[in-house]
Amino acid sequence: MKIAILSRNPKLYSTRRLAEAARERGHEARVIDVLRCYMNITSHAPSIHYRGETLTGFDAVIPRIGASVTFYGTAVLRQFEMMNVYPLNESVAISRARDKLRSLQLLSRRGIGLPITGFAHTPDDIEDLIKMVGGAPLVIKLLEGTQGIGVVLAETRQAAESVIEAFLGLKANILVQEYIHEAKGADIRCFIIGEKVVASMRRQAKPGEFRSNLHRGGSADLIRITPEERSTAVRAAKIMGLNVAGVDILRSNHGPVVMEVNSSPGLEGIETATNKDIAGQMIDFIEKDAVAGKTRTRGKG
């Protein structure tokens, strides 16, 4: 098979591992900088051009699209879909998962456990918004934030009011969520491939920090998840429409709650913590599932 990996940096651990895993299995793998692609959008012969050449003959595409280039990256992926190239994750599913508010609303509608979450536009509503999520301490998140950036823990009502007022004053879109005390700064990353949890790890925030992201200095170790956590993670990925996903779960007193569904989960932390060949399992899934034109949405939506 000829596989395209959409990534801005071929030296990134995840990109490098996917290319290695594909080549080890006898496939041709090519890393393509999504921002260097440009497209010919026409009814009968849609095409993608890259550094002066026309990209042809690909059987599958693995999107590793950074959050900052979601709009353009999903447009390029949609073009691949229009050309009947099999996407590991579809453009519509990635856009759905990247929209924090939309994804939470979809998960809520299907009965997935979530932290109590508020969303507001006007500073007049701050007092009731804080009360709605159970009061301080609470977590305030920028809708566009990634890897823990733009996430603030407000430990008092006064601090919460000040931070919310500041964000709304800057015309930023924010979510306000209850703080899950019992999680004690830890979350669980479940790695899903094809409606199955293939690996899971516990991420623990460093002392004095509440964000467990490895980019923020958190640590990771192997963990055994419960059947309920496994079911919740698989259902969350399926609701988003993702074949591959990283589902972040907190253990709360009322069961597992989903914090986020990540459409381009990093491989370094999970492979290191579990000692599993996750990249290889992703290529194995493509070998079994890739059929030209199989995309459910065919570039729509």
From TrEMBL:
Residues 104-287 form the ATP-grasp domain. InterPro entries: ATP-grasp, ATP-grasp_RimK-type, ATP_grasp_subdomain_1, RimK, Rimk_N, Rp_bS6_RimK/Lys_biosynth_LsyX. Mn(2+) 1 binds at D248, E260. ATP binds at K141, E178, Y179, D187, R211, S212, N213. Gene3D superfamilies: 3.40.50.20, ATP-grasp fold, A domain, ATP-grasp fold, B domain. Binds 2 magnesium or manganese ions per subunit. It comes from the Bacteria. Mn(2+) 2 binds at E260, N262. SUPFAM superfamilies: Glutathione synthetase ATP-binding domain-like. Keywords: ATP-binding, Ligase, Magnesium, Manganese, Metal-binding, Nucleotide-binding, Protein biosynthesis, Ribonucleoprotein, Ribosomal protein. One of its GO terms (molecular function) is ATP binding. One of its GO terms (biological process) is translation. Mg(2+) 2 binds at E260, N262. Its EC number is 6.3.2.-. Mg(2+) 1 binds at D248, E260. The keyword Manganese applies. Its cofactor is Mn(2+); Mg(2+). One of its GO terms (cellular component) is ribosome. PROSITE patterns: ATP_GRASP. In the C-terminal section; belongs to the RimK family. Belongs to the RimK family. HAMAP family: RimK. This is Probable alpha-L-glutamate ligase.
